[in-house]
Amino acid sequence: MRRRSHLNPLAAAGGVFVGSALLAAGAMAATLVMGVTNADAREMPWLTLEELAAQQPIVDPPPALPEVFTTPAEPPVMTAVPTTTLPTTPPESVVATVRPEIDAIWPTTEPGGGEYVELEYPVTNPTYFGNPLTLMVTDRTPDGEWIKVQIPIRPNGTEGWIPATDVDLSSHFVRIEVVLSERSVRVWDGETLIAETSAGIGADVTPTPLGTFFVNDLVERFEGSSYGPYILSLSAFSEALETYGGGVPVIAIHGTNRPELIGGAHSAGCIRIENDMIRFLAEVVPMGTPVTISA
């Protein structure tokens, strides 16, 4: 049985749901490619791995790490920089927006040095479609000089340290919970449930991956798109597909032109919801919002 979509009327009255203003959400863009299965009307990916490599803006190579962390004459004595885990109560999310003058991030395995995190492709700022690069913060050093962020690359959940001087920090209380066994999506603002809806999920051979990810981009689509009017791109990738239609198999929450499939398991891993609901989420969900996908 499909779950009825629900928007909290109190939250709506408080200005969270703004009615027709949702239809005027600004055109924005996703970084990579979301896939659909043969059950859908086919829509070709709009960005392939080759295009991503060819059309990325030219960026300077990563700066040289201090010699002590690269190839010293003798193995150095490494002293770990203590870190402070961010509080989990209340459920506040810390978001890092990369500053405009920073054209790419080069995360390291340790605060202050170590080795560079291996990247499949450069993580550039702005994103491929021109939006500020936004990352979810998961840790920081006590002096605040280094922050640990989740990086939207494979494998899922990859993290690294970047200088705090490269970003502007902000916080909010919005979070999304996806429960695959319930085929449900719930959106919270603090302790207030602001939206709940049924969802379509990945098929058995292309399951939706589990874990905690974050919303890293927003793209507006066209009328009748198999992705619906908007796509919320996540920092997650299919763990069953290497590519999809020549593109990177990014997981996303998006609408659909096949609403009768909502509540089933037919997608290539993405999470499909009703078009009215994705319009609402496109308006109220900030970039960097954590998305927890559980069984």
How would you explain this protein's 3D organization?
With 295 residues, the chain is mainly beta. The protein has 2 domains: 6-50 and 173-294, L,D-transpeptidase catalytic domain-like (Beta Barrel), CATH 2.40.440; 83-172, SH3 type barrels. The protein is 7% helix and 34% strand. The protein has helices spanning 9-13, 49-55, 275-284; strands at residues 6-7, 33-34, 84-85, 93-98, 104-105, 108-110, 113-116, 123-124, 134-140, 146-150, 159-163, 167-172, 174-179, 184-189, 192-198, 201-202, 211-220, 230-237, 249-254, 265-267, 271-272, 290-294. The strands form 5 sheets. Strands 1, 2, 13, 14, 15, 17, 18, 19, 21 and 22 form a 10-stranded mixed sheet that branches. Strands 3, 4, 9, 10, 11 and 12 form a 6-stranded antiparallel sheet that branches. Strands 5-8 form a two-stranded antiparallel ribbon. β14 (184-189) and β15 form a beta hairpin. The chain is globular and about 55 Å long. Residues 9-55, 67-81 and 83-88 have low confidence and may be disordered.
